Amino acid sequence: MNRAVQVEIPRSTPDVTRASYRSISLYSPNRAPCRLDLSDNTNMWGVPPTVRSLLGSSADSVITRYPRAYADDLKRAIGGYLNVAPACVVTGCGSDDVLDSAIRAFSEPGQTLAYPDPSFAMVEIFARMNGLSPLAIPLTGDYDADADAFIASGAPVIYLCSPNNPTGTTLSRRSIERIVEYAPGVVILDEAYAEFASGDCLDLLPGSERLVITRTMSKAFGLAGLRVGYAVGAAELVREIEKSRGPYKVSALAERAAIAALTEDRQWVEDRIIEARESRAKLTRELEKRGLLPLASEANFVLARVERAERLAARLRENGVAVRPFPGLRGIGDAIRITVGPWSMIEECFAALDGVVP
User: How many domains does the chain have?
Assistant: First the structure.
């Protein structure tokens, strides 16, 4: 009778780890179960109906066989949605995968990546993971990008985010156009929340060979758990990102679900976007009534300046409601970010908030 033997595995030592990784911490937001989670900007209205049906009826071969190497069918669906050629589309395992691949494709270790501060927290981590020096450029007083500072940075990759996470504010068209025109390298414009905004920058693509716009199926389309993201840009840029990305990054189930959401569930998605905008406006007004100083958002969340953000978020979680705390944001101070959702959820959030804020 064989007896299991526990094998002692030696601990790794700093001598075998990358020096540039030693300062990187694992991404670890508080994801403890909570009655109402308004912390991660996903679609609080649920799953598009056709997607729900499709996931329950897929053939075994969809699961047992490899997916298409580069998600060609999904590229065509995205191209139809945005009115761009499929050759100008690259997909990935969430838009963060596409961002990581693009950063790696257009820079060499030791170079600089410039990004706004505050903005998407993972960008600094992606820079360090790829051996780059992250350069944080403060947003201006009206939450715009400092175009001259970005251009002067000399960075081969400039990252911008509009609507910006976590502020929810949009960068001015003037600043984006100036950066795209005079940037020394590639500009990555993160439009993860574009569906909730009053405009986007897709029309800049035909006039630029250096602009890449990334988007996601995690927010408006409600597919965060399936991890589907994409970027659009000149075909030559997209090919370089695809080299960096590698094959089989979008599962067959995720590809089918994303295609269904883009082609069959568009009206459902559009209706939810309208509801999200209405809920966002009401949420903003109610926060203002309570003196919590929300920023003007064009995303599916609202950032509100508060005192002692982490303590407030902890107390809300004790009452069954999760929001995202942001202590000490540059130019803002302490703040909490609240995802918009059906108004009944927001009312539940306010009930908890009123119970912990004097």
Answer: 2
| Omega before residue 325 within 30° of 0, cis | no
Asked if residue 164 and residue 222 are part of one domain, the reply reads yes
Across-strand partners of 187? 158, 211
* Tokens (6 digits) for 348: 């539940």
Q: Please tell me whether residues 295 and 156 are part of one structural domain.
A: no
118 and 249, same domain (yes or no) = yes
Q: Looking at the structure, tell me whether residues 100 and 172 fall in a common domain.
A: yes
Provide the token pair at 286.
Answer: 């109610």
| 11 domain residue, yes or no | no
- Per-residue pLDDT 10s for the chain (358 aa) are 556 667 776 665 557 778 778 788 887 766 677 899 999 999 999 999 999 888 877 767 777 788 888 999 999 999 999 999 999 999 999 999 999 999 999 999 999 999 999 999 999 999 999 999 999 999 999 999 999 999 999 999 999 999 999 999 999 999 999 999 999 999 999 999 999 999 999 999 999 999 999 999 999 999 999 999 999 999 999 999 999 999 999 999 999 999 999 999 999 999 999 999 999 999 999 999 999 999 999 999 999 999 999 999 999 999 999 999 999 999 999 999 999 999 999 999 999 999 987 6
Strand-pairing partners, residue 302, are: 338
- The boundaries of the domain holding residue 187 are 49-263
Q: Supply the pTM of this predicted model.
A: 0.94
Q: What is the dihedral of CA 96, 158, 123, 249, to 10 degrees?
A: 20
Contact predicate 326/334, CB 8 Å: yes
Angle at 221 (CA atoms; ends 218, 222), nearest 5 degrees = 60
